[in-house]
Every structure is written in structure tokens, then in C-alpha cells.
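Need residues for this backbone.
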């Protein structure tokens, strides 16, 4: 997946949904409006420490797990440290399609990120993500149960109060 900066992203098919005249109305977004909400989404990602990772179990049922965001790259890739033996790691090896959900209750902003999750194979990411506090869970950086999960963003849906904007990454 190509990584790009959110500020330069605009899809002519972007939609804005607003609560108008007592109902939700969908309209095409112009580039200025979409860029405004992309920047708001970018700020929400930057300040978020926790994301709900949602994946499908073997029966196709959605399962959510709150996870600490360990790192971000250009707001189109998010990284998490986790256990190789966990159910969600096992499942994304079979079906990488997943969703992240980020919410700020203080500002009443939400962001749904759809994309794919993969096990990051680059050993440099293991080093980059590693924190000394992980030593209470793992025997060290080379512990086979220590794993880095990478989420590649494809599509976003940002909402704040009565505005809901969908855009592609």
C-alpha cells in the first residue's frame, strides 16, 4: 500500500453527511471541506493513545480489542505491540481486513479507519516500538511472543457532532 500524507489526500468521491432539516443528508465534498476534515482526523490520530482494533473471528463475527498505539507513519500506518500468541494476531494472518476506531469523548470526535492489518516482519520495527516497560510481559526484544502489528489505512470516516465525512487514503 502506498503511504502518503493526509494533507495531500483528496478523492473526488468524498462525501459529507450532515444533519440538516431533521434528517441526514449526503453531499459531495469539495476539496477545501475534505481537507479541513482530513486535518481534523490527522490531529485526532496524533493525540490518540488508544484505538479499538476490530477484526473478524473465524465465524465472521466482529471482535474489538482496545490497543495502545505504539507509533504512526504519515497517519496512514499505525503500529501496535502485541502477543504473537493472541487471537487477533492469529486471525489477521488468515484475514487481514480490519478496522480501527478512535474516539475522543472530550471533543465528541470519532474516526473509523478501514484497512488491512499485517504482522510487521521488519526487525527494525521491533526495536523502534520496544519500551522498557514491556520487560514485564516479554523476556526481551527477541521473545517469540513479542509481535508488531501494522495497520495500513485505506478509508476513513470522521465525524464530529452533526458532520460525517468519508474519504480515501
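Answer:
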Amino acid at each position: 500500500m502506498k503511504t502518503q500524507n493526509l494533507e495531500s489526500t483528496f478523492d473526488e468521491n468524498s462525501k459529507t453527511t450532515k444533519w440538516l432539516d431533521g434528517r441526514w443528508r449526503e453531499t459531495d465534498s469539495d476539496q477545501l471541506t475534505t481537507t479541513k476534515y482530513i486535518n481534523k482526523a490527522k490531529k485526532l490520530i496524533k493525540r490518540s493513545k488508544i484505538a479499538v482494533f476490530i477484526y473478524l473471528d473465524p465465524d465472521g463475527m466482529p471482535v474489538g480489542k482496545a490497543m495502545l498505539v505504539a507509533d504512526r507513519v504519515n497517519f496512514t500506518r499505525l503500529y501496535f505491540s502485541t502477543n504473537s500468541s493472541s487471537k487477533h494476531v492469529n486471525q489477521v494472518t488468515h484475514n487481514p481486513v480490519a478496522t480501527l476506531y478512535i474516539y475522543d469523548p472530550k471533543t465528541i470526535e470519532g474516526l473509523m479507519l478501514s484497512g488491512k492489518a499485517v504482522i510487521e516482519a521488519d526487525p527494525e520495527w521491533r526495536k523502534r516500538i520496544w519500551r522498557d516497560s514491556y520487560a514485564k510481559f516479554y523476556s526481551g526484544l527477541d521473545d517469540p511472543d513479542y509481535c508488531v502489528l501494522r495497520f495500513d489505512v485505506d478509508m476513513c470516516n470522521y465525524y464530529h457532532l452533526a458532520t460525517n465525512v468519508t474519504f480515501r487514503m
